[in-house]
From TrEMBL:
Domain of life: Bacteria
Protein name: Diaminopimelate decarboxylase
GO molecular function: diaminopimelate decarboxylase activity
Modification N6-(pyridoxal phosphate)lysine, positions: K51
Alphabetized InterPro entries for the sequence: Ala_racemase/Decarboxylase_C (IPR009006), De-COase2_N (IPR022644), Orn/DAP/Arg_de-COase (IPR000183), PLP-binding_barrel (IPR029066)
Keywords: Pyridoxal phosphate
An annotated GO BP: lysine biosynthetic process via diaminopimelate
Amino acid sequence: MYTYEQLAEWRKLCQSSFFLLDTARLRDNYRRFYEAFASRYEQVSVAYSYKTNYVPYVCQSLHQLGAQAEVVSRLEYDLARKLGVEPAAIVFNGPLKTAEDIQLALELGSLVNLDSFSEIAPVLTYARQHPEQTVRVGLRVNFDLTRGGVSPLQNGYEVSRFGFCVENGSFAQALALLSAVPNVRVTGLHGHFSTNRSVGVYRQIARELCRLGKAHLGERLEFIDIGGGFYGELPVTFGMVGVPSFDDYAAAITSVLKDELAEAARLPQLILEPGISLVADAVEFVCQVVDVKVNRGDRFVLVDGSVHNIKPTMHAHRLPVTVVTQSSEAREGTYHVVGYTCMEKDYLLQGFRGKVPEPGDFLVFGHTGAYTLVFNPPFIRERPPVLAIAGGDVVVARRKETLAEFFPESLYEFPAGQAGKTGGYAQ
């Protein structure tokens, strides 16, 4: 753990609360994930899920290790290209791609997984305009995962909103529309579902993708895209036991592919799109105590951070936290940690028992690398900067925003001639 002096020095550099990226942990997560699959299956591609954390320093660190890019918007697609990712190493997913997005990705040679019928027309138009080119695309498929009347989808949903439904014929219809143009080839299937992340569900998804591939694509099947959502290392504060390891996932998925496709002339490429499992535990959030007060018997610790910084999705799990104090004689007690916003519900911790911090002390929240930096709104205060520990150095991976960056004049209209007027209205 970090010393008080280290945190104080880094905060002085940032002039605010900040995120801290451990690049060694990030790289170790990637290597362990890749090796779990590559040691069991020959054709493996790992495409990092940009939406989980698209801070350029994070993405580039993973690309340097060989990770491809999985993107779900033109914004992310352009970022990947800006970072030097070859278009052929970009997997373009997501439920909303414009005709321009699709045609650009096809022109540059990226893999596009179609999600709905609205995305088929741009593919057909592009293919007709380029008859000399074989246009290869994938289809995201939707099928029933319910077993014994229980759905494994997150939040209790029974039906996923993504992809082409197998049961009602939408999948077959999409294949027919695409095959109507001679130079279009559906070469793979994408099967990402947001589920309970169990090994059994991934085994089920892999098996169904293989069977659909055999039945509908045959020898044209070039890839099986399992998607992401894998568990990584979880803190004990989550209270979860029996969490699958990377090896557990890899053994289940690769054995299904080898079994189901044993008679194929060649095994397809296995595409994986991890996000949370790579970055969640590689980032911490460091905030400083501003004040401690007692209201009607409850102790409140005010920090220069917010629940939006550490849990923007408002999940129910308690994040691991370390209190770093200036004094070695900090007393034990129960308190709430609250943030800088004006929202009553801005609690980083509720009913926490541990060292009672004083103003100037630090709280370090772990497991804050997934979705926080991208889903964290710039609400009331600017987004916190990001520091990266790279070897023995500390690098500013994202600076603290200024007013000009928060409200750029290239985006906002600032009416002229009204500055300084108070206490009335313009005549």
